[in-house]
Amino acid sequence: MYATRSRCVLSSRRRAMRIGARRLAVIVGAVMAASMIHGCSALRTIRYRDPDADRPPTIFHQALVHRSDEPAPFTLAVPQRVELDTLTVRDVDLEMRPLAEYLRRRHVRAFLVARDDTILYERYFEGYGPATLSSSFSVAKSVTSALLGRALQSGAIRSLDDSVTAYLPELLRQPAYRGVTLRHLLAMESGIAYTRTNGHMWHDLRSSDARFFYSGNLERSLLGQHREDPPGLRWAYKDSDADLMGWVLARATGHTVARQLEEIWRPMGAEFDASWDLDRRNGHEHTSSGLNATARDFARFGLLYLQGGNRRGETIVPRDWVQASTTLDRSRTEPEVATWWQMQHQHYWWIPMQNWDAEHDFFADGSRGQRIYVHAGSHIVIVQLANDSRQEFPFRKIVHYLVGEPSRYPRSIAGQLLGAARRGADADSVRRLYHALMERAQARPAEFVINEAGMIAVGEELLKQPDKSAVAVAVLELEVERSPASYRAHEALASAYEKIGSEERAAAEYREASKLAPLLAKSASGTGR
To answer: Which of 3, 99, 368, 381 has the lowest tally of Cβ within 10 angstroms?
Structure first.
């Protein structure tokens, strides 16, 4: 009996070893395959995946950015505005919570509120402090924008309408860059193919996000790109456009990007050295994501933009460049990123479109919750360094509280229509509700928000329920009425018409979408460009 049990145990162990060996072989095979695809960048992706905000300086070689010999002083308000701890703000699950709890739940590591040069509120968590360097991730793009403004002023770069190849002739042998200008890179309209991460390991391993974040040779990565669209056709967020802009800046000025940043960092009064991630030793800076600095120095950069690029009478970033980067473009009616604050991309900065005429705010934004928020009217700058990409937007609520103004989060008109439909409202009732809400939004814009993505999402959600198809069509018809020049709205309505069997109306909407955007619109169900 004991011998039989021993043989069974031994057999089980052998099976476990074989299974373990097979799993190891799969992992090793994946690593080898990935390394053959993208070399060093793939191995880094497997090892580090999505790194914490304090990890990049330990992963990449660094270029030092020297601090000022005379740091710009901050005054600490006495007492600090500690009552902000109990100010209720909205969390990502739409629940209202005290700010202190929100910061804890969102893994915020540094949170600083300054009014001009006075720090009103400053909190550090998870081992961070005033001297802790942290990755800015894509906040670095906004800093890169400042360098571009300076290069234009100095004449190192002649015009945003110059072709990329005028500065990097080695790209002439790469057809993907034919016709791409610096303006296209700045607007993220280069037309270069790019894939974002989505949380699935094998996809993320092969994604452009991973390839450029972990690239061990940015020049080679950029030379390996291919074109997806004609330049200028559409906006698509991508790190490669900003990394290419960094290469252009280095070539045009004859200085590394880190050296160029010192021309801002030192006169702005930075208290601490910063660093910029390099693709390899003495290589290129990752201008899309690689700047590491302290919360206070990021606040100083925000204050510099608040002051129009000027400090103590010295122009550090051209005023007209700051204005162009931080002012709403009224010719564009839909946000690039659909949130309640409505994110419009502008010169590598973000403009919250919702009620912007009253707020006049702007911000730099990075993965895992990095933010530099500037509210011009109140002279308030808020810096958030965090380790969680699931973030809300508490900044306006904080500003309004500090200046003694009432504040409430806007209601989504699309959400109101969805709620009414779920409670049994028919198509005509939904139409009446929409027009009533739009009338109120005209009178009180701070209280409401509406965007194309939200309306289309509600229409498509209702279309999944057979008894709601008439309401779904009504919602999409209302969006076409609101945005007659949007090919996406016409396309969504066409798809809804198809689903309910109205082929003639579907064909008419597809034709209109194609007329508005011949290179982007679908011509019929299931067919793309």
So the answer is: 3
Q: Of 192, 196, 195, 144, whose CA–CA distance to 164 is shortest?
A: 192
Q: Which two tokens stand for residue 499?
A: 């689903």
Mean of pLDDT values over 258-284: 98
Please list, in sequence order, all residues whose beta carbon lies within 8 angstroms of the beta carbon of residue 29, skipping any fewer than 6 positions away. Answer: none
Q: DSSP code of 117?
A: T
Query: Quick count: other Cβ atoms within 10 Å of Cβ 88?
Result: 15
- Neighbour-count burial for 130-158, b at 16+ CB within 10 Å, e otherwise: bebbbbbbbbbbbbbbbbbbbbbeeebbe
Report the percent of the chain where pLDDT is more than 90.
84
pLDDT in tens, 60-98: 999 999 999 999 999 999 999 999 999 999 999 999 999
DSSP tag of 521: S
pLDDT of 44 reads 63
The burial class, CB within 10 Å (0-12 / 13-18 / 19+), for 185 is buried
CA distances from 441 to 204, 435, 438, 447 (A): 41, 10, 5, 7
Contact (Cβ atoms closer than 8 angstroms) between residue 106 and residue 391: yes
Task: Note the pLDDT of residue 132.
Answer: 97
Hey, what are 278's tokens? 């390099």
Which two structure tokens, joined as six digits, stand for 107?
A: 């893994």
Confidence of residue 205 (pLDDT cuts 50, 70, 90): confident
Q: Which amino acid is at 30?
A: A
Q: How far apart are CA 364 and CA 383, in angstroms?
A: 10
Pull the structure tokens for residue 225: 């790109």
The pLDDT of residue 524: 54
SS3 371: strand
Structure tokens at 443: 């009178």
Q: Extract the tokens encoding 84.
A: 């902000």
